[in-house]
Write a structure and sequence with these properties.
This protein has about 350 residues and is α+β, with helices and mostly antiparallel strands. A hairpin with a 7-residue loop joins strand 1 and strand 2. The mean pLDDT is about 95. The chain binds adenosine-5'-diphosphate, 2-acetamido-2-deoxy-1-O-phosphono-alpha-D-glucopyranose (GN1) and magnesium ion. The site of magnesium ion has 4 residues, from loops.
Length: about 350
């Protein structure tokens, strides 16, 4: 592809000579840029619809990565942002689009675990990430998307989307709407516990998909956690839960056949083990509600896809018109499977906690 002008705006080593689309994110546009000295960089255009204040998003990312590097003493333990030639880390182009650049990390990321060991490794990465940030000065972080994992508010937004029926798609999503609305009560469980002071707010990642952790190609050990756009105060159970939703699922998020979508309990156990081994400061209550984290994150993403389908696909990148409906249906199938395995999930968490804590 033609190299966009924005690639030349940053303080790269060498001059950009090649550029390709990269990765599978649903939100930003990600490009891999190579320069004439052989250096490689990730160039991202920040999604302005999702992130209305991109400068704050980059400021959070830069601050958190600096903190992680200093705390671990390892310069490669976090993403490395490059300044633009003007000195800023979030570059606005003449069209008003916002861009940032990182050093490319020589690594791979998975869309699904290839082994229990891979998944365990990602759990250690996200658990450690949360643990390292436990003394991060929270008040200095911008709250990028308020109510991001407030599932009570997500249901409000879904109902708003149903009423507005902006894209005229409501009739084609009746079964999904009915199933989702029937789960509203359980969906608010953790939010209510948070409000009642039973669960602490921590600095969390909030988007702990397996493809947001980079693994070393040779050792398969985690190198660093990426996609820091939603690092904000949140619940530990949700970081745990989003990883389960994505990585302990038997098929991909948008499998058109929801019958393929189940929770893999062996992976659930491997992740629980890795997460609890690394995130050692969790309270007993936080550990106890981890299964709720998995269930509610799956439900929440399911209703977010559904609301976006009803709103006309304004938020998530889609590849075809029913994409968000398909994603929603498959997530809701995973919710149903989790409910059928609810006792086992709770037993696994209790057993692993006994072993590793
Ligand atoms: P999105 O918010 O759209 O998910 P990400 O920041 O997660 O964007 O980036 C999308 C993908 O690009 C990642 O899943 C990963 O494959 C790749 N990627 C991002 N940053 C880097 C990096 N510094 N080095 C190597 N690959 C990266
Ligand atoms: C988005 O950016 P990405 O693809 O890692 C979304 C998450 C959803 C996820 C569903 C900022 O994550 O909240 O869980 O898609 N990120 C944002 O796959 O909304
Ligand atoms: Mg991502």
């Amino acid at each position: 592809m033609q190299i966009p002008n924005q690639a030349f705006a940053f303080q790269t080593q060498g001059t950009p000579v090649q550029c390709v689309e990269y990765g599978n994110g649903h939100i930003n546009r990600t490009l891999l840029v190579t320069t004439d000295t052989g250096n490689r960089y990730i160039l991202q255009r920040i999604n302005k619809y999702v992130f209305q204040e991109p400068v704050k998003v980059v400021a959070n990312g830069k601050a958190v990565t600096d903190f992680l590097r200093e705390k671990t003493g390892n310069p490669n333990s976090a993403l490395h942002f490059l300044p633009a030639k003007t000195g800023v880390y979030c570059y606005m182009d003449p069209e008003g689009e916002y861009w940032r650049m990182y050093d490319f990390v020589e690594a791979f990321c998975l869309e699904a675990p290839e082994s229990l060991a891979d998944f365990y490794e990602s759990a250690v990465a996200f658990g450690t990430f949360q643990h390292l940030l436990s003394d991060y000065p929270v008040s200095t972080l911008y709250e990028i998307i308020p109510n991001f994992h407030n599932t009570v508010d997500r249901f409000r937004q879904l109902k708003e989307a149903i009423c507005a029926d902006q894209a005229g798609r409501k009739a084609s999503a009746e079964p999904e709407i009915a199933y989702a609305l029937a789960q509203e009560e359980i969906g608010g469980t953790l939010q209510r516990m948070l409000e009642a002071g039973q669960l602490p707010l921590r600095v969390t990642h909030n988007d702990t998909k397996l493809n947001n952790v980079l693994l070393d190609a040779e050792t398969r050990k985690s190198l660093c956690v990426i996609d820091l756009d939603t690092v904000m105060p949140g619940l530990s159970a949700f970081d745990f839960g989003d990883s389960i939703r994505f990585g302990a699922a038997t098929t991909k998020e948008d499998d058109p056949d929801p019958a393929n979508m189940k929770l893999d309990l062996a992976r659930f156990e491997a992740y629980t083990r890795g997460f609890l081994t690394a995130a050692t400061a969790l309270t007993d209550k936080e550990v106890q509600v981890l299964p709720y984290g998995a269930l509610i994150m799956t439900l929440e993403v399911g209703i977010r896809f559904l609301a976006d389908y009803l709103n006309g696909d304004v938020y998530f990148r889609t590849a075809y018109p029913e994409h968000n409906l398909v994603r929603s249906r498959t997530q809701l199938a995973l919710v149903a499977d989790m409910l059928s395995k609810w006792e086992q999930m709770n037993e696994i968490v209790a057993q692993v906690a006994k072993e590793v804590r």
